[in-house]
């Protein structure tokens, strides 16, 4: 080493002499001196180059440098043309990616810039011309997107060895190019149109290079003044780690500025070891101020192969930082060490435009938070501050919160996944929220995931959000991963009370789905521990399936904050409640101060075990005065009913009980147990019990009657035993006669097997109940016959206080006699009707009457008597009468219709009118009926059901014209199925409908009316004008509608954007491909549609039509129920139907399809049972 130093001194002393020589002589002498004095034979070519470079510079070889430094242009780091100009000014030539691939294929090394200028790749030069680069920049400025330049691209790239002139630069042009490049090197690494690829794959030991043994790389050999091929093993190893190499760090720092510009390309790095490498985005690095860079270099933390590069690198790094620090809009940093955080603290004041700062997974941050908080203070450009997963404690977070008030533009804050184990910090945050809320500024997104926020913190946060009351911006708080306890309820109330608040948390969102109350009612409850009333209503879309293991979401319904509840309502519908019933039972049992409770669990598969658990919980609520408990359609049997009865016996303060066990498996044992419990409830004044669609027989019915007869204090009684196995209800019927205090009575015994005796017993009881104001008797589908009918009709005679009467005797063999050949009419039917008419005429206080006598044999005179009696009841505001299918016979038709029309002329106060005259041949009285209906100016709800009445186009026009005069009409139901209105009748209906723009609900049934496109087109046009419709049913089954008519109809449907429920039946019409596509297009605009029933059976649709239909329906995000009938369409195959079902797999669906290979009709209700 000493010999070499002496040689260097000799070179320095001879520099003046060398400069006096001519250039050729001087160069020759210099080369010889270097060879003899600095480059022993044992030196590697790498050492030769390094030493020769230093000697060359020391010897003052200055005439090869520019005499004066040129003016350094200032380049715009966003302008592609400025980048192109820099390449041109510094004569930097980019390398073609295709040339790199060629070298790799031929296993050749990279050439220097000097040699690369002579190389080619096919018909192109290896280096990109300046004209090409400027053309690229011009295209970009003209809006033509092309490839980026990689600052090392799949197309063009900058690689300094190939793109900059390398040692030995032998003329002033090469040296000038190199110096100009160095002066603005940061432009390449910082420009928004470049990307940087970091390659840290060079092995520390050259002998371990994975290439073949005969691989050679080209290196300039100073002694021979030429490039020579050498083995990598002969090169001097560079054992400096990549992140300690000065130039590498400087270049990465320059590249780093692109991380802070939204939409700009990041820096990427190659990861792995050759040949198993891949590219990934590099995480951002801490921006390094120049003084930090210098200090690290001077301390040896950053190293340079040539010590002379230090000052050059420092100048370039300083210039790059100066020009790019203001570009940082976003900075995301991860896994920082303590010294990196120190650098960040020093850098932040320079990042004048920083808007988003994220520091995550940096454990040392806790110890540096005070320093960070100081520099954040007053950082008014900051809109987002994210500090997740840093193991921050409460003290550190309080430091952050203290500066929030000074961050005037801050809208986003994340403190997620830190160790915040008490709620002191929440109180501080809440103060900031309240302060910003009053000043009009607002944090719009707060991420507090997994911060160990507990109940107290959540309640405090709810109060703060409520107090801040978002008015101008929405505040979203993410609290997932925290056990909020009762706080979840208070947050849910805050969300429901203010549209501007949203909370991401499983429990909170669950509670929000069910919480029912106006914000004005919830606001006073937020934060209180003495909540007295709450109501929840969860439908199946909120909880599709709680599973056999239950769901801890149900626990959120109950907490210590609800122990003061006196009123609680829970409605829940789901497929499987599972052990959630146990959770509900436990929660309910804790609400011991309840006075009013409503629990409705419909179709939840509760079963006997769940019913037992729930029933036992009710037994703990001994202060209840009002209870509504519904387990309809839940597979509950006698076991559950018996346990429920046992619990009810303990509720001695009950005054009101509503019990619904409909559609279960309760038999006589369960019914008898319930009866015993009712007997003990002496304080009851209201009792409603439904055992509809169970297995209760005569014993159960009799037991109920025996018990109910003792409840002499009851004034409102409802008993529903519809669709059971009751043959004899006389005991039950007799009990009602003991309850003379009753004012409201509802008895539903429809669809059993009752005869005249049961009807007579019921009639005898009814005649005693002179205090009744409301009576509902449903005996539909029994066999009470003439005697039972007469008794019931006579019983109404004394009930003169009635204001509401519903009597359903449809299909009860009244007026029938059994004769050879089947049922025939009898004169007794007329007698029943006459007595009933007489009784009705006495009920002058009635304002609500529903009378269903269809399916009997009243005869013409009987039907006329009933129809005429209605005219006496001038106080009626609601009338629903069904006299259809009563065997009026030829000659009586006109009388019935005329009598009804005459009565309607007296009922001017009607707001609701429903008239059904099926198979009554009223066509000759259509004009009279139309006139009467048209005079009812107060009607808002009208249903006219004239199915099978020989109505022709003229009749249809009369009736339709009546609708036009009903300006208050909002609901209309027109059922003219099985008539003959034809196209002309449809046109008349269309004219009337077009004027009813106030309609919100409409049903039109024109099944089998020989209506074609000529009638449908105007009807469609009119429908398109009814833009207030929310519910539409259009039934056109078995007509002659063609593709044109369906297209017109579809276009009109598409205009009804308010519709949420739609039924379209085009069965046995010629819909075809075009019609189905039009329907799909129409449906696609109905963004509010939740329920759709579409019948395209035998309509000529094909696979393509079904596909288009599926695509359209898939876009309807609010759709919750879908029924589609595709039967008898031979060009729709199974695979198409399966695809349709899969596309809409999230929508509850009944999809009916007829497989030609199998005569059975297939219902595809889910993918699991798809054909």
UniProtKB/TrEMBL annotation:
<dbReference type="InterPro" id="IPR027038">
    <property type="entry name" value="RanGap"/>
</dbReference>
<keyword id="KW-0343">GTPase activation</keyword>
<keyword id="KW-0677">Repeat</keyword>
<protein>
    <submittedName>
        <fullName>Protein NLRC3</fullName>
    </submittedName>
</protein>
<dbReference type="InterPro" id="IPR001611">
    <property type="entry name" value="Leu-rich_rpt"/>
</dbReference>
<dbReference type="Pfam" id="PF13516">
    <property type="entry name" value="LRR_6"/>
</dbReference>
<keyword id="KW-0433">Leucine-rich repeat</keyword>
<dbReference type="InterPro" id="IPR032675">
    <property type="entry name" value="LRR_dom_sf"/>
</dbReference>
């Amino acid at each position: 080493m000493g010999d070499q130093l002496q040689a260097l001194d000799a070179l320095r002393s001879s520099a003046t002499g060398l400069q006096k020589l001519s250039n050729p002589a001087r160069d020759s002498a210099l080369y010889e001196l270097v060879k003899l004095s600095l480059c022993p034979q044992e030196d590697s070519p790498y050492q030769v180059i390094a030493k020769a470079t230093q000697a060359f510079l020391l010897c003052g070889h200055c005439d090869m440098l520019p005499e004066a430094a040129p003016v350094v242009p200032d380049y715009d780091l966003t302008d592609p043309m400025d980048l192109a100009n820099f390449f041109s000014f510094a004569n930097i030539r980019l390398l073609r990616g295709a040339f790199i691939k060629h070298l790799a294929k031929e296993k050749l090394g990279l050439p220097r810039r000097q040699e690369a200028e002579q190389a080619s790749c096919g018909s192109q030069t290896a280096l990109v011309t300046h004209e090409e680069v400027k053309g690229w920049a011009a295209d970009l400025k003209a809006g033509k997107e092309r490839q980026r330049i990689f600052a090392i691209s799949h197309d063009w790239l900058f690689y300094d060895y190939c793109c900059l002139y390398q040692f030995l630069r032998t003329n002033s042009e090469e040296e000038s190019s190199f110096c100009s490049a160095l002066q603005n090197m940061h432009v390449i690494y910082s420009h928004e149109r470049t990307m940087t690829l970091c390659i840290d794959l060079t092995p520390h030991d050259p002998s371990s290079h994975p290439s073949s043994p005969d691989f050679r790389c080209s290196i300039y050999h100073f002694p021979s003044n030429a490039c020579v091929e050498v083995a990598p093993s002969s090169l001097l190893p560079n054992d400096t780690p990549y992140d300690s190499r000065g130039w590498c760090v400087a270049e990465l720092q320059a590249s780093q500025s692109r991380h802070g510009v939204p939409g700009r390309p990041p820096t990427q790095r190659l990861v792995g070891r050759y040949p198993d490498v891949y590219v990934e985005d590099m995480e951002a690095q801490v921006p390094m101020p120049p003084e930090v860079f210098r200090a690290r270099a001077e301390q040896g933390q950053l190293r340079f192969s040539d010590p002379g590069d230090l000052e050059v690198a420092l100048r370039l790094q300083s210039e790059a930082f100066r020009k790019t620090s203001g570009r940082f809009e976003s900075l995301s940093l991860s896994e920082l060490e303590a010294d990196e955080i120190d650098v960040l603290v020093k850098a932040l004041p320079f990042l004048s435009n920083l808007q988003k700062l994220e520091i995550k997974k940096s454990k040392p941050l806790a110890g540096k938070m005070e320093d960070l908080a100081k520099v954040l203070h007053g950082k008014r450009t900051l809109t987002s501050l994210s500090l997740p997963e840093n193991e921050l404690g409460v003290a550190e977070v309080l430091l952050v919160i203290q500066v929030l008030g000074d961050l005037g533009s801050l809208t986003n804050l994340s403190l997620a996944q830190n160790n915040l184990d008490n709620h002191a910090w929440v109180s501080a945050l809440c103060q900031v929220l309240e302060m910003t809320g009053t000043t009009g500024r607002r944090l719009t997104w707060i991420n507090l995931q997994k911060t160990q926020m507990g109940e107290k913190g959540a309640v405090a946060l709810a109060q703060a959000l409520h107090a801040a009351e978002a008015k101008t911006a929405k505040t979203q708080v993410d609290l997932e991963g925290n056990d909020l306890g009762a706080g979840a309820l208070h947050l849910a109330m805050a969300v429901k009370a203010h549209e501007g608040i949203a909370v991401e948390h499983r429990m909170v969102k669950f509670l929000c789905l069910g919480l029912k109350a106006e914000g004005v009612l919830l606001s006073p409850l937020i934060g209180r521990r003495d909540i007295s009333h709450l109501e929840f209503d969860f439908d199946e879309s909120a909880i599709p399936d709680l599973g056999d293991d239950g769901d801890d979401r149900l626990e959120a319904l109950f907490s210590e904050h609800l122990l003061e509840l006196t009123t609680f309502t829970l409605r829940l519908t789901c497929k499987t409640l599972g052990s959630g019933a146990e959770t509900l039972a436990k929660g309910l049992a804790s609400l011991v101060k309840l006075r009013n409770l409503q629990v409705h669990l419909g179709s939840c598969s509760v079963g006997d075990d769940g019913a037992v658990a729930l029933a036992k919980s009710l037994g703990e609520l001994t202060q209840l005065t009002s209870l509504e408990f519904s387990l309809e359609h839940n597979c509950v049997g006698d076991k559950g009913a018996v346990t429920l009865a046992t619990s009810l016996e303990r509720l001695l303060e009950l005054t009101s009980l509503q019990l619904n066990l409909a559609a279960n498996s309760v038999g006589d044992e369960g019914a008898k147990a319930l009866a015993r419990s009712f007997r003990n409830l002496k304080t009851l004044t209201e009792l409603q019990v439904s055992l509809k669609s169970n297995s209760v027989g005569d014993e159960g019915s009799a037991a109920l009657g025996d018990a109910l007869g003792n409840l002499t204090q009851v004034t409102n009684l409802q008993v529903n035993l519809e669709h059971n196995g009751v043959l004899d209800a006389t005991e039950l019927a007799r009990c009602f006669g003991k309850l003379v205090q009753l004012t409201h009575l509802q008895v539903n015994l429809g669809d059993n097997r009752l005869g005249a005796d049961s009807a007579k017993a019921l009639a005898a009881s009814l005649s005693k109940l002179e205090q009744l104001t409301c009576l509902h008797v449903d005996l539909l589908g029994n066999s009470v016959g003439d005697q039972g009918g007469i008794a019931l009709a006579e019983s109404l005679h004394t009930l003169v206080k009635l204001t509401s009467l519903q009597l359903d005797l449809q299909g009860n063999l009244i007026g029938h006699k059994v004769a050879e050949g089947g049922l025939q009419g009898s004169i007794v039917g007329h007698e029943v009707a006459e007595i009933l008419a007489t009784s009705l005429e006495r009920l002058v206080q009635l304002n609500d009457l529903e009378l269903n006598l269809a399916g009997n044999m009243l005869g013409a005179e009987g039907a006329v008597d009933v129809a005429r009696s209605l005219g006496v009841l001038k106080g009626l505001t609601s009338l629903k009468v069904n006299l259809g299918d009563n065997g009026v016979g030829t000659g009586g038709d006109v009388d019935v219709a005329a009598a009804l029309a005459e009565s309607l002329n007296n009922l001017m106060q009607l707001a609701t009118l429903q008239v059904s005259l099926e198979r009554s041949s009223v066509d000759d009285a259509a004009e009279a009926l139309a006139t009467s209906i048209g005079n009812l100016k107060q009607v808002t709800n009208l249903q006219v059901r004239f199915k099978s009445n020989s109505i022709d186009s003229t009749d249809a026009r009369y009736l339709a014209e009546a609708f036009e005069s009903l300006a208050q009409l909002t609901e209309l139901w027109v059922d003219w199925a099985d008539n003959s209105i034809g196209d002309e009748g449809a046109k008349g209906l269309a004219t009337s409908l077009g004027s009813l723009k106030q309609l919100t609900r409409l049903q039109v049934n024109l099944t089998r009316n020989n209506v074609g496109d000529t009638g449908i087109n105007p009807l469609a046009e009119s429908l398109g004008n009814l833009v207030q419709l929310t519910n539409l049913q259009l039934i056109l089954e078995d007509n002659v509608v063609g593709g044109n008519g369906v297209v017109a109809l579809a276009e009109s449907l598409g205009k009804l954007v308010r519709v949420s429920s739609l039924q379209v039946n085009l069965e046995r019409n010629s819909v075809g491909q075009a019609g189905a596509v039009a329907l799909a297009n129409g449906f696609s605009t109905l963004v509010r549609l939740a329920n759709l029933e579409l019948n395209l059976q035998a309509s000529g649709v094909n696979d393509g039509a079904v596909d288009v239909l599926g695509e359209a329906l898939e876009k309807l995000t609010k759709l919750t129920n879908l029924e589609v009938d595709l039967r008898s369409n031979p060009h729709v195959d199974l695979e198409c139907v399966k695809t349709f079902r899969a596309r809409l797999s999230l929508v509850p669906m009944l999809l009916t399809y007829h497989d030609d290979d199998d005569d059975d009709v297939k219902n595809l209700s889910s993918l699991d049972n798809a054909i």
